[in-house]
Prior knowledge:
Layout: E1 2-5, H1 11-27, H2 38-41, E2 46-53, E3 56-67, E4 70-78, H3 87-101, E5 106-112, H4 118-126, E6 130-132, E7 144-150
Parallel strand pairs: 4-5
Antiparallel strand pairs: 1-2, 2-3, 3-4, 5-7, 6-7
Amino acid sequence: MDIRIDDLIHPDVRALVRQHLGDMAVHSPPESVHALDLDALRQPGITFWSAWRNAELLGCGALKELDAFHGEVKSMRTASRHLRQGVAATLLHHIMDEARRRSYQRLSLETGAAEAFAPARRLYGRFGFQTCGPFAGYIADRHSVFMTLEL
Length: 151
């Protein structure tokens, strides 16, 4: 798997991000969708990666700098035909390594509370993330689960 910083130009990457946003809207009310669109993912302080095997897009993920010691995992998504093949775990490991390289002390994330998000919550739990309260301007929301990991 080749994981690379991505400029969000490739049509397959754009389609995957749009699919991610669409799926979030299906499983959460609009005020509880915290996924970033293409423009937001290009903002300073966000690094976006795509994962490829040859010319096939496997998935994507991003790291948002909240401050000099705290990062947020964003936009984790595996392409549908590659689900349950370790793509998300490999991307998360890559993002965690980058967070450590940046000397972050904490890595946090927001994911959905609906059953559709259970695989994501299990993945984060396997990596040591624990539920926590809202962070970085989020507010308590029954549709959101907040998780954090001390690095």
